[in-house]
Design a protein that fits this description.
Layout lengths: L8 H8 L7 E5 L6 H9 L3 E7 L2 H13 L6 E5 L5 H7 L5 E7 L4 H5 L26 H7 L2 H12 L4 H14 L5 H11 L2 H6 L5 H11 L2 H14 L1 E11 L2 H15 L18 E3 L9 H6 L7 E7 L8
Helix pairs in contact: 1-2, 7-8, 7-11, 8-9, 12-13
Bound molecules: S-adenosylmethionine.
Amino acid sequence: MPTHIPVLRERCVELLGGNLRDGGVYVDATLGLAGHASAVLSAYPQAFLVGIDRDTQALSVARERLLAAGHEGRFHLVHATYDEIPRALAEAGFSAADGILMDLGLSSLQIDDDARGFAYRVDAPLDMRMDQESDTPTAADLLAELDESELAHIISEYGEERFARKIARRIVAQRETQPLTRSSQLVELLDRAIPAASKRSGGHPAKRTFQALRIAVNREFEILDRALNCALDSLEVGGRLVIESYHSLEDRRVKQAFASRTRSSAPAGLPLELEEHKPTFRTLTRGAEQADETEQETNPRSASVRLRAVERIRADRRRN
Ligand SMILES: C[S@@+](CC[C@H](N)C(=O)[O-])C[C@H]1O[C@@H](n2cnc3c(N)ncnc32)[C@H](O)[C@@H]1O
């Protein structure tokens, strides 16, 4: 069976505590292989899990894992993207949650499956869709169809790649003679496009462009921005949202969404803070927490994690 070592597992379990200690509804919005979910169900024996993943393969492995861990009857799994938390809750018969976890990015199941084209170290078709049942464009489709400026924009914005324009120009030139359908073709192109000096200091030359394509193929930021609001709106008073991000572009979005709910919305200069202006959430973490050295050594994926968590402290009059 595939393995995935959950990052900051014990810390997530602890932060999700709150209402879940007395039962309640726990949404794992990125169920993956159910590593975190299984730990949360074991720690809070009266809690019920609504598990969401956009990857059906992950959902079936997660189901087996949860059953093998003895959690039968304590979960409902939904094939969805995480901006559909309200639908997933309703499908399981609930209207709100007491704890929500989002562990962003890919699972080892996806990275290690060569056929899915996420990894630049092995040759595979350029697919990169997390949901293989959807009929949305693959990475190869984007490389074939987007114009040069759109490609440059994606590679620069989502990959933070300095040589985005040059790379986009080369992609457009190459596809005139030969379509880019395999990861090895793209890796070769990137290797030629990125100057030797930058290759020495900037990590693998394909890393940033592969990240950019993956984000674009899966519309990751568009969905994340919607999901952050859905998740915050779905929490009961005392309910907690815990998010693990793995690059600065994700973490920035999480930080902003949390900031907008944890500070007062009173206009500057108002002598008294009215009830409707009071923050509806409080922060549970100081800045972003990181994994300690021991965990980073045993689980390299944890090296880039940034964990943030908030708790709802009052109902939102405008929304609830
Ligand atoms: C890092 S893994 C989660 C691993 C999990 N915490 C565990 O312990 O096994 C992230 C999972 O989120 C899923 N995912 C990514 N983006 C998603 C989205 N927008 N909606 C739903 N699931 C998503 C991926 O398919 C993947 O299975």
